[in-house]
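To assess whether ligand presence alters the predicted conformation, the chain was also submitted together with pyridoxal-5'-phosphate. Input:
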Amino acid sequence: MERQAIIDLSAIANNIRHLREICAPARFMAVVKADAYGHGAVQVARTALAAGANWLGTAHVSEALALRAAGIEAPLLAWLHTPATDFTAAVEQEIDLGCSGWELDHIVAAARELQRPARVHLKIDTGLGRNGCSRSDWPALVAAAMDHQRQGLLRVVGVFSHLAVADEPHRHETDEQLERFREAVAVAEEAGAELEVRHIANTPATMSRPDSHFDMVRVGLGIYGLSPFADRTSAQLGLVPAMTLQTQMALCKDVPAGQGVSYGLNYATAAATTLGLVPLGYADGIPRVATGGPVRVNGTTYPVVGRIAMDQMVIDLGPDARAGFTEPGSGVHAGTALGATAELFGNGHDGGPLVEEWAAAAGTINYEIVTRISGRVPRSYIGGTL
Ligand SMILES: *Cc1c(COP(=O)(O)O)cnc(C)c1O
């Protein structure tokens, strides 16, 4: 197999069915921002809808427009905007818009231009301190939006918020956020809003806080089969990781003791051994700091030694790998590992390495590892009918 990220669409479909059972009767938004966390937005969106997702969510309008351009007609929400966002295209393409405050005028202008009401989900900051309307400004935002609604320029169809610490289910701040959310919803409903969807739950809240489900959950990480909890694995949550990252070994080379490896020569072989070259690096999205990350070759998992470079990284296959055909004099042998599949992470079912091991090696979280796999790595799809 060449360098590729293999995306198992049946794993994504099964993860969604599992998560839908947990959140029912709430509706299910599949979050496919950032190219579906690196898995391919259009393919994942189609799979998600076929598996019962009711809504799709993206951060940017541009991401939502790309889904519409691919012919996807499902309800679609985009929530992160700048003054340069193309609100007119969004309204024209029937993309629901998150609104924290300043966007309202832009959205109304787009609706006026198109002579068509925009669909808006008002966002309240219940404690995350990022996007969303502050609690003090909320009554004024609701009043302004309802004014526009009465003039036929928009429809307030949702109220939503985002949680800060749902991945740590014991923390009290989630209770406070949910209480503030209920208050904000009440303000909107008292002002006359007839809400289709009230939504605040992300993956960890969907799995640990049934009282956060309201009318809809917004699930990203879980549909890709990854655990949002530091102390729970995918398997423990009934999820299957959907992305396998693999390549072929590009070179195997016998070296003597004391051979330095990669830029900086931070690693030196302790004894005569065989080094294996893995043709993936930071241009492919493997964090440069992730020395020690696992690579499985022929059923054995080896840690990356030395620095990860732009295009490649090295594993020490050990003295036993020397068995096999050796080209006379060259020190290069093809007998064992050249061309063998090198797997960096996969679904873990056969004991192979996991995304979380790469996250630990890089000092980050599983979200970042899959999302940053770059466009240089071709995606291939299995398990679906797409
Ligand atoms: C990314 C995002 C989500 C999904 O979060 P997960 O933890 O991946 O489920 C939900 N809502 C908003 C607003 C987001 O930005």
